[in-house]
Specification:
The chain is 38% helix and 11% strand. It is α+β, with helices and mostly antiparallel strands and 106 residues long.
């Protein structure tokens, strides 16, 4: 008589060789095989690319990503806050002083 080994999950004995039952008890699903992507025409260069490898090479070549890859990221602001450097502030003050002194002299 062969010996069997069991794993207890939440008080339930499951045969260690029954991988489907173990995955189900652990809340896992089995591996899913996805078909390759269909061919598509690039809106950027008009060439036809096929499959996932074609999509990756297209994205690398044109430095783009799929919109689905951006889900969950915070939106990019359209206006950036401008902060002048100390040098820029000093140049503006000097320029305004020149304008002021020019009109004070007239």
């Amino acid at each position: 008589m062969a010996r069997k080994c069991y794993v207890y999950i939440d008080g339930v004995a499951i045969d260690k060789e029954d991988h489907d039952a173990l995955d189900k008890a652990r809340g896992r699903s089995s591996a899913t095989v996805l078909p390759d992507l269909p061919d598509f025409v690039s809106p950027i260069d008009g060439k036809t690319y096929s499959g996932r490898a074609g999509l990756r090479s297209h994205n690398d070549r044109h430095n783009v990503v799929l919109a689905d890859d951006l889900k969950g990221l915070p939106p990019k602001t359209t206006q950036q806050e401008f902060r002048a450097t100390e040098r820029q502030v000093a140049e503006r003050r000097r320029h305004l002083a020149e304008i002021y002194n020019h009109y004070q002299g007239n």
